[in-house]
Design goal:
- Helices cover 42% and strands 21% of the residues.
- The protein is an alpha/beta fold.
- It has a five-stranded parallel β-sheet, with helices on both faces. It has a four-stranded antiparallel β-sheet with strand order 6-7-8-9, covered by helices on one side.
- Strand 8 and strand 9 form a beta hairpin.
- Helix 2 packs parallel to helix 3 and helix 7 packs across helix 9.
- The mean pLDDT is 91.
- Bound molecules: calcium ion.
């Protein structure tokens, strides 16, 4: 059986040990790098299925590593950051990272994020869903050709903005999308002042697709960051 390969980029030995111990108990192979220079070389030579990336490295900014890796690879990248690096986290997601964990994180959370990233795979769901005219996720489906969305087979009446919003989230299922990214995709421009209107559209969209919009199953909120469509 193929064991997924994880590249762990982290300069803090305590966190590296924690991750190693966790990965040892699972069906994963891994390789560790302590700085940005070796991380970039390992991203090529080790050819990982997922990269776990600490943002604060001794020789290089984590965001720079993401930009370099994205130059040739769509490998899922999960950022590990300290809470003080919140702004960097958003920048890292905009540079092409898929997800993030804030230190200290739980092992269960870590493994759950890893599974989502592995499911997304190297080309993301974007490539697969771009080819398919139909999106299916739990009871939610989208017929891209017809421009219609359905819940349990019944058409959901969406405004053009709500439909666009839903499609952007669906085409990036599993990936955390920043407010800026969503604003650019839906409205063609990203202005911080538009975040409140994004929240309003998100609330009305949720009312239409979530059974309980106070405990959303499909669209997850990332406070101060953005939203993610969860795979059911
Ligand atoms: Ca660090």
């Amino acid at each position: 059986m193929y064991k997924p390969k994880i590249l762990v980029v982290e300069d803090d030995p305590a966190i590296t040990n924690l991750i190693r111990t966790t990965l040892d108990t699972q069906e994963y192979q891994y390789h560790t790098a302590k700085n940005g220079t070796s991380a970039i070389m390992d991203a090529v030579s080790y050819n990982p299925d997922v990269i776990i990336l600490d943002l604060g490295l001794p020789d290089m900014d984590g965001v720079e590593i993401i930009r370099k890796v994205r130059g040739w690879s769509g490998v899922p990248i999960i950022i590990v950051s300290a809470r003080s690096e919140d702004q960097d986290k958003v920048e890292a997601l905009d540079a092409g990272a898929d997800d993030y964990l804030t230190k200290p994180f739980s092992i269960d959370e870590f493994l759950a994020r890893l599974r989502v990233a592995l499911r997304r795979g190297r080309n993301g769901e974007t490539a697969a869903s771009a080819q398919s005219a139909l999106y299916q996720n739990g009871e939610l489906s989208i017929d891209y050709a017809a421009g219609c969305a359905y819940m349990e087979g019944k058409e959901i009446h969406l405004t053009p903005i709500e439909y666009k919003l839903l499609c952007v989230l669906a085409k990036n299922t599993g990936k955390v999308l920043t407010h800026n990214y969503i604003l650019k995709e839906v409205w063609g421009t990203a202005v911080a002042a538009d975040i409140p209107s994004l929240r309003v559209f998100m609330a009305t969209l949720r009312k239409k697709i979530e059974r309980d919009s106070s405990a959303p199953k499909y669209i997850q909120t990332h406070i101060g960051v953005g939203y993610r469509m969860l795979r059911q």
